[in-house]
């Protein structure tokens, strides 16, 4: 996903008139926009902290921030900021931030688990094994967090990749079959059947 301001820069506005800024959002069909935020960084003064003008959910075609003179609209793949009664105090650097949801899937290849987000803004990764953080006895997580090299043998249990950002998180789980547990269960069932057969034989002998 990419965002581009369409106005020619720098933008010159006469005080008392309307400021109109438009940005184009280029995304693919799998990317779903969550929120759109317009901010302004003051041009002068000791406090250069960015001011949030408006934060709008993508499902709303138009919204306003704390200032009634500020309106933000979203139409197809363009978002527009309109500011009535522009003044010299409104000078500065304007920017727009588009955030989108996080989704996750896991690709499995032998003892290597790869977690790839389908979409997301600034995602962070974490890995769990049986609902607990992965330890060195289980495996090693890559520096970027999206890959887990499993060192435990055999490869067994539930491995979960969690991907999150400031909007929330999503997770994907891979369940590796535990062969040793399967053999133990089979053996227990066989022993139980044999025990029942022996008991049944003894009971039949006593009745006879």
Automatic annotation (TrEMBL):
Gene3D superfamilies: Immunoglobulins
Name of the protein described by the UniProt record: Si:dkeyp-97a10.2
Domain Ig-like: 1-109
Transmembrane residue ranges: 187-207
Keyword Membrane set for record: yes
InterPro entries reported for this sequence: Ig-like_dom, Ig-like_dom_sf, Ig-like_fold
Swiss-Prot/TrEMBL keywords: Membrane, Transmembrane, Transmembrane helix
């Amino acid at each position: 996903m990419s965002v581009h301001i369409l106005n020619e820069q720098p933008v010159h506005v006469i005080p008392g008139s309307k400021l109109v800024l438009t940005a184009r959002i280029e995304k693919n069909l799998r990317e779903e926009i969550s929120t759109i935020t317009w901010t302004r960084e003051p041009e002068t003064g000791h406090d250069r902290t960015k001011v949030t003008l408006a934060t709008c959910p993508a499902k709303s075609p138009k919204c306003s921030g704390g200032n009634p003179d500020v309106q933000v609209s979203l139409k197809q793949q363009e978002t527009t900021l309109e500011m009535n009664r522009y003044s010299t105090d409104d000078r500065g650097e304007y920017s727009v931030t588009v955030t989108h949801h996080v989704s996750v899937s896991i690709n499995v290849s032998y003892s290597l688990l790869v977690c790839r987000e389908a979409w997301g803004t600034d995602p962070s990764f974490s890995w769990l094994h049986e609902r607990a953080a992965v330890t060195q006895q289980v495996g090693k997580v890559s520096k970027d967090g999206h890959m887990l090299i499993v060192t435990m043998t055999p490869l067994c249990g539930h491995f979960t990749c969690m991907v999150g950002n400031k909007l929330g998180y999503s997770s994907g789980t891979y369940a590796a079959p535990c062969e040793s547990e399967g053999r133990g269960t089979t053996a227990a069932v066989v022993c139980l059947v044999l025990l029942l057969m022996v008991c049944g034989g003894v009971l039949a002998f006593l009745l006879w």
